[in-house]
Design goal:
Alpha-Beta Plaits; transferase (chains A, B, C, D); about 350 residues; two-stranded antiparallel sheet; homotetramer; Aldolase_TIM (chains A, B, C, D); alpha/beta; 12 helices; 14 strands; transferase activity (chains A, B, C, D); TIM Barrel; Class-I_DAHP_synthase (chains A, B, C, D); DAHP1/KDSA (chains A, B, C, D)
């Protein structure tokens, strides 16, 4: 839909429109209103360059496109029947719980093993544990390759899959070689298309899933879903969308909680949504309320920072990790609400 | 706390600080660190002009104040034991449900009477009905004084209190004269201090409550609580804080839902929080999920647009009003969750 | 333009569209694309209720309107040839400079008289002086009626028009009775439609102009221009748009400077734009750069806080008022740039 | 500075503070006010883990740090005397102009050569040309290695240095091997710390500079400066900060122009600031005003998209590239303003 600056275009102007869209196999259909004429693009309008060239014309105000740019992630794509599974849970049926350390302390492996056992006992289906950490401050602890062994040992001891963040090709290779079952793309790499392509290519044909965090700052849903399209495009559709709060944060929270985007994502894409309430609020005592709100909005799962002794943790754990006891209560309440709620489009939810 | 631009101030600079704070009955205490010295203000630091004058000094970077500016609304004020009551419900104990039309249609009073009866039947404790409406577009329907009679007749027929928005002194007088029990200050008037003062003065000593909506655009919590301080300052402490979503809206919602501020408000103020999910999301089919999320975050009540026949409504009703059947389901689910959840600081919520 | 959720609507669905738009004198024209059909509204589509009812249909995704809602403020309205004049300056020709106190100190009238004389000497065409002040904190100094006499005396002594903010009907009447030439609507009242209507009605037929500040928080241009439409609608078209920075502020500035909206406003409306750099940045030493940037973007004038002795000022003056010497330099540089720059659409600006 | 939730801490609570900060070589100094006691951290407080552990204590409200986390980028670091040079221009003395294509068209090398010659003629000191392009849509044109040869041929023909964006290690190696003089880190990789480290390590000891774009979404200044610290930390201090507008965009611009952060950056860091007005506004006809505003705010240079025939360009060029004639006029005006303005802290700017 081309919206011109003036109420009607001249014939030579319309010819310019025709010439441009013609190069992309489209044609122009004017819609003549009483006051104003607008110009529909008939054909496949998803050509970024075509739109840029149209918007570059001085008599064009803007071009609105109405087709989804997501061939694979779109709710109407053939993949819409695909179901992602993690740790024995089929997303979309049961509520998936992932829990564990923000950062594994390479000097205290037992803390991680204890947490892994405790969160399994509390009801978690997968264990999270940070091996490498992105830090705004270059002089902060950035993680340690040794933690990868600790992570996998935690997986073996519990029999549960593990999730860890990878930030570059080297970490990606190490994580896959070690057998990590869920690769996490962090909020700082949500627009790092080189990494998204590398991850997509590396997991093709492998029984591995990707937990894709939403970008750190408030962006569009299109941006979020496009990042997933980059990965799925290589053949492995096991991608999970993870809202985790955005910057700037609300007065008193670490981020601005964004579990409310869940219904909007679910209208556009078939991908499951697993919310991270820990980063959303950033303090342990707010986490249970945020987790429950995520389930209220229809989330398929929760990814929570938990630690047997938060004050001894590294990274964000001293602030935002809940104890296994809190986690157990939270899981119980979340499961009850998940069972009670039905489709957000029905009368009673 | 005065943070200077350089690591240490000279004695004449410190003397300037002393001279300014001395005028306001405060004194300066330097805190000498290894690298840097900062300067604490000892005494009552809540003088806006004192802070402006300190920040106006070229060697001062900024002044951080740590005392709450809210003498009455603060969680530690003597009013913290006050309980607001509406329609037989004590806020903080039971979940308050307010529901009804965005806008009363003066040509179709029966629609409002039917809605009033239906939302009472569904479980609502108070009826909302817009008499006068703020509109971005000056040529849109702005309401009608006749609707005030319809509103009060709805109150009489149901025996329930009614809520309506007032935007200026004339409307305030009319509403109070008619017997409106809950006055609403809308999101566009959240910083209209003249109106806040007029309302505070007018309700002093009267059995009337105020539903104070959060400002239309994302502002600070301080701004929201200060607006309430303006009202309470005149003697009637029956004020209710109402988050209703903020601008800019999330991709697909009318506003950015903000029920997540509830725990942050409750740490700062004793005032009850009643969330408006209808304006937050702006489309009827998203309302139940948002309402449930508000209860998950600890809201004391919900204010919901409902209509017996949404498509015949004026204002926002055709888009965002739920039917009485949806409302009844929503109330049932919300009450169950409200009963299940406990303090957000305990282990299990 | 009605965008449905599915690629094509059924005939009964299209009939529903036709029935609704028919009530408002419009008709539906389908535009059949290869993949999708959209539905144009032919006729005057500026009916808020029509749009709300269309968007309330479950098969409608959204409705895009392309007609300007501003009958009078629109760049294409008959008023586009109107020129606003203040203090002998025709806006759009010469650069208007307004300068003076944030707040007049009723106990020190001479400070204001000295500033008024000094800013006239520096080149200002109008004097600003706050009589009544909106404050987030209800216990801060809120202004004093006595200051109105001081303001007018400043006008008489300099022979220049004066600008002051009014926040309610009482202040409006006092200011007009005293002979204030420029009424200011502050950033906190940008959506206070009752006040906008009162001001519009009160100034009709009078030689008075309105300086309309942009809302305090980032809002749409439509919102800003609509506020002006409320005023002009009563017959006096002497309205000036005043960007003044928006909340949340940039790291280190009081607000987020927004002089960059000037070209966007000028494409939509004929109204002159006078930028307030003082509130935009909030500290005196940043003001000259911001003022110059405003002129770079095509502003028609500047409204600046200035004070002969900033540290003795009330309100924001100790922080953000520039001295007359700084003001004189700033005016010189701004006039040189204003003279040098030409239309932003030509090759060299 | 530790701000507790209550007015005073108990002795055991203070002991907990002491134990934590003691592990990091700091000590606690209480500051006793009339109403409240706060607790200063004496020593080097820049330990992220120490702060996280303090904030994890239930009786702590928040911890404010006042030391800059940027050892090298800080305005007070020893590097503050370092001057970055590009294309014969010493940043901080003369105004640097970089200009050229958003994207090089590998099928039409002559278009780039013509633009390179034309922007040199117009007064540019360096040529920009995109070889690889990040795209939200995975199916859009992503660039071509062949364009790297075209880029370098443009450099040889004009004798000017060239700038191009690299997004991963492979592109980094190719660009350095080819002899690219200015590496660009794009707005989508502003938080990609793996890439920042790879770039820092790769350029150490080489006569190469980095143009570091600000992140795509509004982030803090600290975040921006920290990204530069990652690079400089490896030994090559030739880093240039490039504001380029942030998301969400202003009504009608591609982004929200952010040249106004220039004075704030310059107070914190010694690094030069080169503004990109092309991405800030996103349409060619707004670029000259934005460029001039950047110079008004004290920018050290401009990075502008220019094209001999914008409508034949790829990527953003059809919309946002200016012609060489417009560029020449813009450079003339910008240089005049740059010469006229002086330090933003002096009276006349």
């Amino acid at each position: 839909m081309i919206l011109p600056k003036n109420n009607r275009l001249t014939e030579p102007e319309v010819d310019q429109l025709r010439a441009i869209v013609g190069e992309f196999g489209c044609r122009i259909q004017p819609i003549v209103g009483d006051v104003r004429t607008i110009y529909a693009i008939v054909g496949d309008e998803r050509h970024e360059l075509m739109i840029n060239r149209l918007e570059g014309l001085e008599f064009v105000d803007r071009v609105d496109t109405i087709q989804s740019p997501h061939k694979l992630m779109d709710i109407k794509s053939d993949l819409a029947r695909h179901r992602v599974k993690v740790g024995g849970v089929t997303l979309g049926q049961d509520l998936l719980i992932m829990a564990g350390h923000c950062t594994i302390d390479p000097k205290n492996p037992n803390l991680f093993y204890e947490t892994a056992a405790a969160v399994k006992e509390a009801g978690a289906h997968a264990i999270r544990g940070g091996v490498w950490k992105p830090r705004t401050n270059p002089y902060a602890f950035q993680g340690d390759n040794k933690s990868l062994d600790i992570l996998m040992e935690g997986s073996r001891r519990t029999g549960l899959p593990v999730d860890t963040e990878v930030m570059d090709e080297e970490q990606l290779k190490l994580a896959l070689a070690a057998g990590v079952q869920v690769l996490q793309i962090g909020a700082r790499n949500a627009l790092n298309y080189s990494l998204l392509r590398q991850v997509g290519a590396a997991i093709a044909g492998k029984p591995v899933a990707v937990l894709l965090k939403r970008g750190m700052h408030t962006g569009t849903l299109n941006e979020f879903i496009s990042a997933a399209e980059y990965i799925v495009n290589f053949g492995n559709p096991n991608v999970i969308l993870c809202p985790r709060g955005t910057q700037p944060g609300l007065d008193g929270y670490r981020n601005h909680p964004d579990e409310s985007i869940t219904p909007l994502l679910k209208e556009r894409t078939w991908a499951p949504v697993v919310v991270d309430p820990s980063h959303s609020v950033g303090k342990a005592h707010y986490v249970p309320a945020c987790a429950l709100a995520a389930v209220a909005y229809g989330a398929d799962g929760l990814c929570i920072e938990a630690h047997v002794e938060p004050s001894r943790g590294l990274g964000d754990d001293p602030k935002q990790a809940v104890t296994p006891a809190v986690l157990a209560g939270l899981i119980k309440d979340a499961k009850a609400l998940h069972a009670a709620r039905r489709s957000p489009r029905t009368a009673t939810l």
